[in-house]
Amino acid sequence: GVDTDMLAQRMLDEGYLIAPGALFHATRQPCTLMRINFANTQEPAFWRSWKLVLQSLK
To answer: How far is residue 13's CA from residue 52's CA, in Å, rounded to a whole number?
Structure first.
């Protein structure tokens, strides 16, 4: 799994806003779930950034 809080911050640094799953839980416990705006996923640049960020977090 990936720390989605860190993933969200790194994607924000790239100009894309995603919501880590912890935002949707009352206890804000870390989790591997997230929400991504569907409109963002239509851009090839989003997926290029996504791939680079994920590789950097492993």
So the answer is: 12
